[in-house]
Amino acid sequence: MSNVQQWLQGDAVDVYFQYKILKDRPGLLGDVASLLGMLGFNILQLGGVSETGRGFLLRTNRPESVEVLRTMVKSLEDIELSALRPPSLRDRIALRHGKFIERSDTEAKTYRFVRDELGILVDFLGERLKRPGRQVIGVRGQPRVGKTESIVAASVYANKRWTFVSSTLLKQTIVRELRQDQLDSDAFVYIIDGAVSTLRGDERHLCLVDEVLGLPAPIVIEHPDIFVKRTHFGWQLFDLLIELRRHPDELIQYEVYEQEAARWNEE
């Protein structure tokens, strides 16, 4: 049942509430908290999500109070309503870490991180990996920026085991067969290096990649651009894309992998 349906049916629901401070003054937070209490909201979590923004995770058994809160906040002079909605994972992460994850302006399902935000990335990705069923997540980034390490850490966070279908973490790994228990278990996160698989993998390995992509389990593909370019899969395969950079302006380029592929073919 969705949060919207719960609101309509009167069940207890969580609500994300955020406002922008227009005029900071002593006692402002206390006044807002008193208003929330008067309307029957329990404050589960609160925190600053920007320099002038404050967010709340609320719970209420009175769904009609949501619209009352919206109306009352709009009448206040010291704050401006920024959000009042069922909480997303992005909202919850912002409350934990004090900032919102950046999203791409051109790709709606793409989230951007820099190395200084590895803790936020692991938290966000770990929560995604906890979700049941199949999901395919692409991770972009230059070599040695921390992609694989973040995926492994997020798997631990999600209390799942990980298995490399292909990787360059310690040495170049190309797996051609997995044990049956590794294919049957829903406790695994499958990690594919899209560059290694498509530039170096043989027919048996690529058959295994196809088999893994059909499993009802979380799958993370590093270098998704190369993977899409060199396989029959399209971007519709991915439920989510993550970009990791050393700094916000770093370009993610793949020429180095094309050059390495040429050298492999000469060996």
CATH arch. level architecture of the largest domain: 3-Layer(aba) Sandwich
What's the CATH topology name of the largest domain? Answer: Rossmann fold
Q: Encode the helix/strand succession as letters.
A: HEHEEHEHEEHEHEEEHEHHEHEH
Oligomeric status of the shown chains? single chain
Overall spatial form? elongated
- Quick one: CATH class of the largest domain? Alpha Beta
Helix content: 25-40%
SS content category: alpha/beta
Low-confidence stretches: none
Global mean pLDDT: 89
Distance between the termini: 56 Å
Q: State the strand order across the main sheet.
A: 5-6-13-7-12-11-8
Alpha carbon gyration radius = 22 Å
Features:
seven-stranded mixed sheet, alpha/beta, Rossmann fold, 39% helix, four-stranded antiparallel sheet, 2 domains, Alpha-Beta Plaits, elongated, 267 residues
Description:
- This protein is of the alpha/beta class and about 270 residues long.
- The protein has 2 domains: about 5-95, ACT domain (Alpha-Beta Plaits), CATH 3.30.70; about 100-265, Rossmann fold (3-Layer(aba) Sandwich).
- The protein is built from 11 helices and 13 strands.
- The protein has helices at about 5-10, 30-40, 65-75, 90-95, 120-130, 145-155, 180-185, 195-200, 205-215, 225-230, 255-265, and strands spanning about 15-20, 40-50, 55-60, 80-85, 100-105, 110-115, 135-140, 160-165, 165, 175, 190-195, 220, 240-245.
- The chain has a 7-stranded mixed sheet with strand order 5-6-13-7-12-11-8, with helices on both faces.
- A hairpin with a 4-residue loop joins strand 2 (about 40-50) and strand 3.
- Helix 5 (about 120-130) crosses helix 6.
- The radius of gyration is 22 Å and the shape is elongated.
- The termini are far apart.
- The model has no long low-confidence stretch (mean pLDDT about 90).
